[in-house]
Amino acid sequence: MVSSSLLSLAFIISPVFAVGPAVPPQPEDRIPPKVDPTRLENFPWTNPFSSASKLGQFDATCDSTRTFSAAEFQLHDLRQPEPTGLKPYSEALKGLFYGRGYPGGWEGMDNHGYERNMLKMEYDEVPAKVKDWIQEQESAKGPGQGLYAVLDKPLSRADDKDDEDESGQKVVIFAPGAIYENLPLWVAENSNCEESLSDLSTYTATPSEGAVVGWTTEHIAPSRTQGRRDIKFTVKAQVLGPKAKEETDDESTETAKSTDESQRSNQAAEKVQESQVPRQEANEPVKDNVKDEL
Q1: Phi-psi map region of 51: left, alpha, beta (phi>0 left; psi -120 to 50 alpha)
Q2: How far apart are CA 250 and CA 257, in angstroms?
Q3: What range does the record give for the signal peptide (predicted)?
Q4: Percent of the chain, pLDDT > 90?
Q5: How many CA atoms lie within 13 A of 98 on its CB side?
Q6: Residue 99: what pLDDT?
Q7: For 122-161, what is each residue's pLDDT tens digit?
Q8: Residue 171 to residue 284: CA distance in whole angstroms
């Protein structure tokens, strides 16, 4: 018989997004030890704004940045009630996520096992273009199917069941790595380049002319020891264009030399014009003193 410790180890190192423990529920102090985070091997996205990027070869013709509010949880929070846990959604999440590949945490990192992160957002705070993408992927069974779990909030006595399907009565739960799959859509609306950012066919991990690149530029872990789960994260995307030509040192010297020669030529022309101006001569009329004779 396989021991629970071996099952725990298999769960921790597995790349599969196994929501819920692979062993019977344990007290918080018996959760298996944390494993050092590693980057997902199949994570295709890289930070285009890092110093190692080729972004400097291009100019941004447009960029857009937005900051969002969310709550960040770990897998072992599934057993905890709200607001520090996801217990009302645990069964639904197991059905949606169990057995599929983990999309990754922030920047494609995998904290493994019980330390894996999940985000919860109010569905009505998700940009409309992201909602449309989620619905399209689900209905068409596209590659993004199952990345985002849109779930009804648990109903309280004061809730009206007639409003159950309204956006304000739903939440969306997802791994941070899911954001990178449709990142430009998070910042497209009301930007100066909405059409370009809405076209995911130009979204790429490799900067190039005409491409759209993006990244999550800021996110801070919640104060879990203080019972906090709330966070903010910032998303940035750019449309890239050709690099503006910069003058070389030789070109700058040649331009300065040409300017000096032009100035000297203008000064010489002004002197010639001054020398050709005729001098005015004072020609006073002579009056004859003539006596009138009787």
Answers
A1: alpha
A2: 11
A3: 1-18
A4: 53
A5: 10
A6: 75
A7: 999 999 999 999 999 999 888 888 899 999 998 764 555 5
A8: 103
Segments making up each domain of the chain, as ranges = 8-242
Show Cβ contacts of residue 205 under 8 Å, excluding neighbours closer than 6 positions.
Answer: 44, 45, 46, 48, 213
Q: Is 148 helix (H, G, I), strand (E, B) or coil?
A: strand
Q: Cα 127 to the chain's mean position, in Å?
A: 13
Instruction: Say what the pLDDT of residue 36 is.
Output: 86
Task: Yes or no: say if 90 and 75 are a contact pair by the CB < 8 Å rule.
Answer: no
Tokens of 113: 């096992």
Spacing of C-alpha 120 from chain mean position: 18
Which regions of 76-168 does DSSP assign to beta strands (E)? 100-101, 109-110, 117-122, 148-152
- End-to-end alpha-carbon separation of the chain, Å? 162
Q: Helix, strand or coil for residue 39? A: strand
Q: Rounded distance, CA 284 to CA 87, Å?
A: 114
Amino acid letter for position 149: A
Q: How far apart are CA 61 and CA 69, in angstroms?
A: 28
Read off the tokens for 133: 């993408």
Residue whose structure tokens are 């849109």: 150
Place of tokens 């002004």: 270
Pairing between β-strand 16-17 and β-strand 100-101 as defined by DSSP bridges: antiparallel
Task: Say which residues have a Cβ less than 8 Å from residue 217's Cβ, sequence separation at least 6.
Answer: 49, 65, 234, 235, 236
Q: What is the pLDDT of residues 82-116, one digit of tens each?
A: 999 999 999 999 888 877 788 999 999 999 888 99
Q: Which amino acid is at 105?
A: G
For 46-61, the pLDDT digits (tens) are 999 987 778 989 999 9
Is 122 in contact with 114 (CB distance < 8 Å)? no
Helix (H, G, I), strand (E, B) or coil at 70: strand
